[in-house]
Design goal:
9 strands, 7 helices, about 30% helix, about 230 residues, alpha/beta, about 20% strand, globular
Length: about 230
């Protein structure tokens, strides 16, 4: 079985891209399954199951970052997909933490970026973009050719080796190159490892402490004038 993780900011078109990919995979007689990881609400699993009849599942991360949730449950997700007899497992993360990277070593990582989000978006994404294999730029019909060139340049500026696919996913434009890369990807290797290091974020705020001001907390902190420092044992 092969694993493909789709990441990207909210509303960028991840699910639309995945639906088009699934449609083409089924025409090739593959057996895909789909998992959505979100925070509070998701119905993509239901709509995809209804449309394509493939195994689907959703997982709510709740108080966890969705990418954190992805790390701690992915082994169970892989087992579930194997039990479904799947050839391909597509995992869509909610993409709320731009500092995280949900991708796994020796599997395919796809980041979906909405071209209408501004020319500086690729500079704001971090490892979600720089550690991906493919950057799918969506909604290209809504911006000018000059803006498309600038956006593409900014993606390459952030991730020089990445494969760029420009897509109007609503109409299925630009999906075939993604499918070809998915077919060429590696099978899952276990044990699985994250492709990048998670961000430093363990602190009293993560544990639920609500007081404002660095003086009230310990762990990894900073002030307006001082870069990251650590307080505590």
């Amino acid at each position: 079985m092969k694993l493909v993780i789709f990441a990207g900011p909210p509303t960028c078109g991840k699910t639309t891209v995945i639906r088009q990919v699934i449609r083409r995979m089924l025409k090739k007689e593959y057996k895909p399954s789909f998992v959505k990881i979100d925070v509070l609400y998701a119905d993509e699993d239901e709509t995809i199951n209804k449309e394509f009849g493939i195994p689907t599942k959703k997982i709510y991360s709740g108080e966890l970052c969705p990418d954190h949730c992805n790390v701690v449950v992915l082994d169970e997700i892989v087992d579930w997909a194997r039990n479904q007899g799947s050839d391909y497992l597509f995992v869509e993360t909610a993409g709320l933490c731009l500092r995280c990277s949900p991708y796994i070593e020796n599997s395919l990582g796809v980041v979906v970026l909405e071209s209408t989000s501004g020319m500086n978006l690729p500079r704001k994404i971090g490892p979600m973009l720089t550690l991906a294999d493919i950057a799918v730029i969506t909604k290209i019909d809504l911006i000018s050719q000059a803006e498309r060139e600038v956006f593409r340049y900014r993606v390459i500026e952030a991730a020089k080796e990445i494969r760029i696919v420009e897509s109007n996913a609503l109409y299925g434009i630009g999906i075939d190159p993604i499918v070809k890369q998915i077919e060429k990807s590696n099978e899952i290797e276990e044990p699985m490892f994250l492709r990048g290091n998670p961000p430093v974020g363990t602190c009293t705020i993560c544990a639920g402490k609500k007081e404002i001001g660095a003086k009230n907390h310990f762990g990894v902190l900073r002030t307006m004038e001082q870069e990251l420092f650590y307080v505590g044992e």
